[in-house]
Write a structure and sequence with these properties.
This protein is of the alpha+beta class. It has two domains: about 10-415, no CATH class; about 470-600, Jelly Rolls (Sandwich). The chain has 21 helices and 15 strands. The protein has helices at about 10-30, 40-50, 80-90, 100, 105-125, 130-140, 145-150, 155-175, 180-195, 195-200, 205-215, 220-245, 255-260, 285, 295-305, 305-310, 315-345, 350-380, 390-405, 410-415, 430-455; strands spanning about 310, 420, 430, 460-465, 470, 480-485, 485-490, 495-500, 505-510, 520-530, 530-540, 550-555, 560-570, 575-580, 585-600. The strands form three sheets. Strands 4, 5, 7, 8, 10, 13 and 15 form a seven-stranded antiparallel beta sheet that branches. A five-stranded antiparallel beta sheet has the order 6-9-14-11-12, with no helix packed on it. The longest helix is centred in the middle third of the chain and has 30 residues, at about 315-345. The chain is globular. Mean pLDDT is about 90; it is low at about 420-425.
């Protein structure tokens, strides 16, 4: 029998939504234009809808779209975030604010709605306002989530749609299924389809939850089913119909047309795309063996490795959220053992429905991680934990469920610190624990802003001092250990290079590290026959890894003569590598290469 609970007041979620919307709008207006991965591609996805008032159709609109180096376009992906951004920019166009900034109102709106829904879901599930406040703060102030709310992307739509679905599933657990609730669940499922493919991974768990808990009265079966289907179509299945109409029955997700158009726009060698399977490891080795820190880096990037994976945070942020995520993951198996033990002793369990529901949520989290790891193994190594955030609300519910069970311990309740107002015996007593929880979450977020985010985007004045330049001898190739995917010839003009693939590499001998100190300025003079991107890598013993500002740095190349100045904070240097360009079949001449030590001092400093 369903446990009928009184409907909570709606003011709480609305207040939470309004507060976080104001905060996200402020952060969105402050971030630089290029903040966030794939900035240009996301802007293009929203710009077409903003300008044309419709979705793009290929190949008719091909010339109006931006294509990435992989040959892909956001116009063929589920468009919820771009539709929201375009509508928001159109509504607020009277403000005169740059359209690129107005697009960010869409993610801010979706993420603020997400936080409000988390508050509502937790309050309804636990009937505990403090848990709802804690969950809203943990999600809303999570560094990676705040960053997603502040720039245009499609992850915001994935997180929102899954959270909306979870909210209605929580209601389904505690209420009788009515036609209105069935229609709302259908809309939420449709929005999942319209958001992002990473959100689709939640659909199996949502389907199992519907099978387990959807029990309408016999006279309501047909209305519930009809409104569920209508809601799903209105919410997002129409996008599949749009693709079928334009691309045929065999291409409902626009995969075939995407493959056809990408062939003419791809600018990277497919063989250069790195995946962990190329290194001969298995999925178990990748995850259970934590190969090359895969699990650690995933956890770090889930909590917050911001900008283009260049802005790491500190111990307080990673410790707090690691405890939340890990406690939510390990608590449920222990709970099932407790239930089985109680039944073995002849006792009765009155929370089997909640345990089953939470098991489905844990299954959703595990499945999301499994598919993420599988993609990194077999498709492309992209250690970006943001792809796990669609199920963030599931992890938070599991964490607070564990917290609730721990809070039932009699010893803990007796020793929990209290604030007493009035007389000792007859006064009002308030537990300090929720107040401490809220304070810790806010302080951890403030610490991330003060120590990492603000200095990164608005760095304080520095005094830079440059040492003497040490010029490398390019009249021979004695410093080169190996070259890959290029032809190199030593001439009087320097190193003449012809690239054979888009992943050309010059790997230097370890003794080149003697030229480098902790911080360095690298000056490189070169001639190129086309535009491209040069990359400088340094290896501290863990192989060359692309990490802007951490283990690599990049510079754009223009056709003709170029003088590039790259800063490199190398530290413990083992090897150096230069990728002359990311273009195939190109001719480059490196005329000179010099290194100078660089010292950086904070204020106060004197300029002589």
């Amino acid at each position: 029998m369903n446990n009928i609970r009184p409907t909570p007041n709606r003011n709480g979620p609305l207040i939470v939504f309004a507060a976080f919307l104001a905060y996200y709008l402020a952060t969105a207006m402050m971030l630089p234009y290029s903040a966030g991965p794939d900035h240009t591609a996301h802007i293009d996805g929203a710009t077409f809808i903003f300008d044309q008032g419709r979705l793009a159709v290929l190949p008719q609109d091909e010339e109006q779209l931006h294509f990435t180096v992989y040959g892909s376009t956001r116009a063929l992906r589920p468009p919820l975030s771009y539709i929201t951004a375009a509508i928001a920019a159109r509504v607020l166009g009277w403000t005169g604010i740059d359209t690129r900034l107005l697009f960010r109102v869409g993610p801010a709106l979706l993420c603020a709605l997400t936080v409000g829904l988390i508050f509502a879901a937790l309050r309804r599930y636990f009937n505990n306002t403090w848990f709802a406040i804690g969950g809203a703060l943990l999600a809303g102030l999570m560094p990676q989530f705040t960053f997603i709310a502040s720039h245009l992307n499609d992850d915001c739509a994935a997180i929102f749609s899954v959270t909306l679905t979870l909210y209605f599933l929580v209601r389904l657990l505690h209420e009788k299924l009515t036609p209105v609730l069935a229609g709302a669940i259908g809309i939420a499922i449709g929005l999942v389809i319209l958001s992002k493919f990473t959100a689709w991974l939640f659909l199996p768990s949502a389907g199992l939850a519907l099978l387990a808990f959807a029990r309408p009265q016999s006279k309501h079966w047909l209305p519930c089913l009809a409104l569920f289907v209508i809601g799903a179509v209105v919410g997002g299945i129409w996008w599949i119909g749009f693709n079928v109409f334009h691309y045929g029955w065999n291409d409902p997700l626009a995969f075939h047309i995407s493959a056809q158009t990408s062939a003419g726009h791809i600018r990277i060698d497919p063989d250069s795309v790195r995946k962990f399977a190329d290194e001969g490891i298995s999925l178990a080795h990748l995850v259970l063996g934590n190969y090359k820190g895969f699990v650690d880096e995933t956890l770090i990037s889930t909590i917050g490795n911001l900008d283009k994976l260049r802005l790491r945070l500190g111990l307080p942020q990673y410790l707090l959220y690691s405890l939340v995520l890990l406690l939510g993951a390990i608590y449920l198996p222990l709970r099932w053992l407790s239930i089985l033990w109680t039944r073995f002793l002849g006792g009765a369990s009155h929370q089997a429905r909640e345990s089953l529901f939470e098991t489905l949520l844990l299954g959703a989290v595990v499945f999301q991680f499994f598919m993420y790891a599988r993609y990194n193994l077999n498709q492309e190594a992209q250690i970006q934990g943001k792809y796990l955030l669609p199920v963030l609300s599931c992890s938070l519910l599991l964490f607070f469920s564990a917290t609730e069970k721990v809070g039932r311990w009699r010893w803990l309740r007796q020793h929990m610190p209290l604030l007493t107002f009035g007389a000792t015996l007859g006064g009002t007593r308030i537990s300090l624990t929720p107040i401490l929880m809220v304070s810790v979450i806010i302080l951890v977020h403030a610490d991330a802003l003060a120590r990492f985010v603000v200095p990164f985007y608005d760095p304080p004045a520095m005094a830079l001092r440059l040492g003497g330049l040490r010029v490398l001898n390019l009249q021979n190739d004695m410093l080169i250990d190996d070259t890959r995917n290029l032809e190199l010839q030593v001439t009087d003009d320097g190193w003449e290079i012809h690239t054979l693939t888009a992943d050309s590499q010059i790997i230097f001998k370890p003794r080149l590290c003697d030229f480098f100190q902790a911080n360095n300025l690298v000056l490189l003079q070169m001639h190129s026959d086309t535009a491209g991107m040069l990359q400088l890598f340094w290896d501290s013993g863990e192989n060359f890894v692309a990490g802007e500002g951490i283990s690599s740095t990049t510079a754009r190349i223009q056709p003709g003569e170029n003088v590039l100045a790259l800063t490199a904070g190398i530290g413990d240097c083992k090897r150096i590598r230069i990728d002359p360009t990311n273009e195939v079949d190109r001719d480059i001449v490196i005329r000179s290469l010099a290194v100078a030590p660089l010292s950086i001092s904070r204020q106060p400093f004197k300029i002589q």
